Amino acid sequence: MKDRRAPPxxxxxxxxxxLLAACRQDADTDPVAAAPEVEQPSAERFQQSLEGLWSTxxxxxxxxxTLYVFEWQAAGLRVVRDGALLDGKVEDVDLDNGTLALHxxxxxxxxxxxxxxxxxDPQTPxxxxxxxxxxxxQTEALGFVRRLTARDREGVxxxxxxxxxxxxxxxDTDAPAGSVRAAxxxxxxxxxxxxxGMRAQFKELADRYPDGDRTVAAATRQLDACDTPACLxxxxxxxxxxxxxNYDLGDVVDYQ
Length: 256
Known about the structure:
Elements: H1 9-29, H2 31-34, H3 43-49, E1 52-55, E2 67-73, E3 76-81, E4 84-85, E5 88-94, E6 99-104, E7 112-120, E8 128-133, E9 139-146, H4 150-164, H5 180-187, H6 189-208, H7 212-225, H8 229-246
Antiparallel strand pairs: 1-2, 1-9, 2-3, 3-4, 5-6, 6-7, 7-8, 8-9
Helix pairs in contact: 5-6, 6-7, 7-8
C-alpha cells in the first residue's frame, strides 16, 4: 500500500518560500513593470509652469516694481502687465532653450514679438526666474512672488474685459501704441486722468507760447521713455511743477 501521508510541514514551508522568491525575481526583472512613469515635456506643460505672480523686484520705491501675471487656460496663456492685458498669442515654444515667443498685437500700431526665457536657479533644483525681452531689445528680469489667488484671476478677467471694450475717452492719448504709457493710460483711471490733464496743458502751452511746441516735445519724450508706473507718475508731477514755475497755465489735475 502506498503511503498517502502529507509531506512534513517544514518541506511545505520551504517550497512556498522558493515559489515566492521566484515570483519576486520575475517581477524585479520585468523591464515594463520596473520602468518609472516619466512625464514628457510639452509646450502646454511649459506654459503651465509659468503661471503665477512675478515681479521685476526693483527697489526704487513702493511702486517701483512692475508686476506680471501669467495665467494658463485651455484657450491659451494670458499675460497681464501692471493690470493691462498684453493682447498676444503664443507663436512658438522652444523646449530645448526654455523660451516662449508671444506675438503681441495692436489695432493702432505695430506689433512685436516678446520673448519669455526661463532662467534656471543653479542653487535650487527645478527653480527658475524669468527674463522678458521686448521687440525693441528692452529686457526685464522677473522673480517669482507667489501662485495666483482667486483675486488675481479676477484681475486677469477684468483686464481681458477692459481690452475687449471699444475705444473710449479714457484711451484718447497720443502715447505710442504698445508703450507702457499707453497701457497705463488706457488701463488705469488714475493715469487716464493725469494724461488727459497734461495734454490739455500741452495744447494751451503750444497755442500761447512761442517755445511751447519744443517744451511739449521734450515733455512727451520723457513721458514715453518711462517703463514703470512710478516713473510715469513722477514725470507727470515734474512737468506740472515746471509748468507752474515757468508758465501761466490752468491747473487741470493735481499731480501730487
